[in-house]
Amino acid sequence: MTKTIALAYRINDLFEGTVPEFAKRLEQDGYDVLHLPYSRETTPQQIRQDIESRASTLEGRLAVTDGTVGLELVNAKTKVRALGTGGSEVCFERVEPRDAAHALSYLDGLFTRAATKYCGLPNPTNSDLHVDRARFVQDLAGLTREIAGRNGAPDKVYVMTDKLADHGPFNKPYGSNDDRTNAAQIVKQGLEEGGVPSDRIAIVEEWQRRSVKLTPGEQTWFVADRHSRESKYDDSPTFKCLPLPLSSLRYKAMTKGLIESGQPPAEGIYSMLKADIAK
Fold first, then answer.
1. Which of 93, 124, 143, 148 is the most buried (most CB within 10 A)?
2. 26 — alpha (psi -120 to 50), left (phi > 0) or beta?
């Protein structure tokens, strides 16, 4: 019997170069794949509406998702099975909406596990997906030291609060201003423990973004959630845009040469995906 899969996610830099190819490979390997790549601009409400319109098509499929779509599958009460963040199938009916964003972030977890397996990075224990804030600070500090060691220490770091609580370890995609500000303080702590002096770090609220001015010749970092518009800027010799959650930051750091680590091979990541589906 052919295994039916729903591969559904919102496009970002972490997924767009690899996951569409995985969808094609799964079809070539005999799987019935419903491939739903939502554009970067698609809102969670639009994703939920689309899921609700596809209820009969989705029913019974194994859902392979990111946290954004996973949450909306739960909100829409979709009758699917699902792979959880760690790679095993979860009891979908028991996933509460408040837990869905991190419990069903399978694709983020896949890239995180691949970075550990193929690139020798420390096991992050899904710190960017679960609520282990102490480990998040530790992992962010380690990446900060590596990036600064290879590219030069920053003269200024701007932590952008827009969407900052959307991913782990905060997991509050509909959070308040206080949630985002608290998330920024935890990010600031990780940067400080990674060697960036406190007086070089500025937390920028959404209404302050236009006041940010880059100083020519200074090394400047933007730290922003990948859902934020600030995460889309291109790097330059004196400017680095560091996206969160940590799975996105690790992947960018590896693929753009910001750290001394190889890139996880696409074939290896696909093999991990296929093994998880076959469990």
1. 124
2. alpha
* CATH number of the domain where residue 51 is located: 3.40.50
For the chain, give the mean pLDDT.
88
Of 62, 185, 70, 197, give the one whose Cα is nearest residue 129: 70
For residue 120, what pLDDT is reported?
A: 63
Same domain membership, residue 147 and residue 241:
yes
DSSP 109: H
How far is the C-alpha of 119 from the C-alpha of 121, rounded, in Å?
6
Handedness of CA 63, 69, 70, 73 (dihedral sign): negative
**Does residue 220 belong to any structural domain of this protein?**
yes
Query: Of 194, 204, 125, whose CA–CA distance to 159 is shortest?
Result: 204
Q: Is 126 left (phi over 0), alpha (psi -120 to 50) or beta?
A: left
Domain identity same for 91 and 159:
no
- How many structural domains does the chain have? 2
Q: How many residues does the chain have?
A: 279
Cβ neighbours around 75 below 10 Å, total: 16
C-beta separation of 170 from 183 below 8 A: yes
Alpha carbons within 13 A on the beta-carbon side of 35: 14
Asked whether residue 117 is assigned to any structural domain, the reply reads no
* Domain interval for residue 152: 124-255
